[in-house]
Design goal:
globular, mainly alpha
């Protein structure tokens, strides 16, 4: 989930209690992305690598990679100064699936491209733009509170 990206940006307390609007939106996004991932996998119907016992879904494109890049791309929209760290976190999540033998490298590359595509589709959707604006405001408010809290604790 998107909450695991807090550590990539140095925010240890990135959690749904602090960001309820954002958490709800990301859950909604996750549900929509799951449908898009399943649709894509059903088109390509590529089996997982030998040794991987996942028979419930196909391998291409990697759903983990797709999600990882959706989260990273959306969050870098709010944290542009952390874009490199966020993308690196997404790549780490994606390539872990190759290292574990769950995916082929092409699955991960396709997931990255598909994740960026899905993010662009979301950001172009007027309904999503309204919801995203509220989430961004909540994140920015939280971010400023976190910064001031860190400064106060150092004093």
């Amino acid at each position: 989930a998107f909450l695991s990206y807090g550590d990539a940006m140095g925010y240890e307390l990135f959690n749904p209690r602090q960001l309820p609007i954002t958490a709800a939106l990301f859950e909604k996004i996750d549900n929509d992305i799951d449908i898009a991932i399943t649709d894509a996998k059903d088109i390509f119907k590529r089996s997982h690598p030998p040794g991987d016992n996942n028979t419930e879904s196909y391998s291409y494109p990697s759903g983990h990679s797709t999600r990882a890049f959706v989260w990273a791309t959306l969050l870098s929209n709010v944290f542009p100064e952390e874009k490199e760290a966020l993308i690196e976190k997404a790549r780490q999540k994606a390539w872990d699936k190759v290292i574990l033998g769950d995916h082929y490298p092409a699955d991960v590359y396709a997931g990255e491209i598909y994740g960026e595509y899905l993010t662009n589709m979301l950001l172009e959707n007027p309904d999503f733009q309204q919801e995203w604006s509220k989430a961004c405001q909540e994140i920015n408010n939280w971010k400023h509170q976190s910064i001031f809290s860190d400064i106060w604790n150092e004093v």
